[in-house]
Amino acid sequence: MKSPVICLHGWCCDACHFDQQVDYFSGSREIVSIPWQSILVDHPGPVDLELAARVVESACQAEDLSDPPILVGHSMGGMLAAMVAKARRLEIKGIVVIDATWPLDQAAAEFFGSFIAQLEVDFPGAIRDFFTTRLLSPDDDPGINADVIERVVQSDPVVGLAVFRDLQTPGRLPRVEDVAVPIMGISSTLKFLDRDNLLKHAPDAWYGQIVGSGHFLMQQAPDQLNAMLERFFCHI
Questions:
Q1: Residue 215 belongs to a domain with what CATH number?
Q2: Residue 106: what pLDDT?
């Protein structure tokens, strides 16, 4: 039996960002993309990444999957995949972390702190500047990036700020060595995911880099990504 796949979108992004992966794999295995941030918007109380991880767990359980799933997370979704794996409240087969700044080093933490201050002043403006100056590649299809950014700037600012602030909570993100299931790290040309750090703490982890794509590689380079995912899925 082939393991089911649960896809987790990035910060302020959409479940539809995994549409090409869902289309590619749906003929051979169960695959679902969960809109975890939209679910948080409807939550009546305060939200944080721990709540987001529990939302992911609950959504997986509600799917009534045939077997433990592989979690495939992009950016902050990859961080959530690692959190769920560490918590072990849900049995999972492995995780794929796509272009996430994980592990979160001191330099990244300091930059994120400055970005939070910008978000508090001008949420859509700060997002637009961050995405256009730091997340894109010259080889990207500009139309895809423009569509992503226009949707991201319309995200709920309260939830967006809350989960981003929570990245600063000490111990919130697990260490690589805290994840006891197989890991695959996939980077864009921007290399947000630190290969050496990943393999230092998880020598058996898989690592791949997409050629010619910025941060939104699920849409920009689906053929490359799907091939990498398929090989990892079959291996574990």
A1: 3.40.50.1820
A2: 85
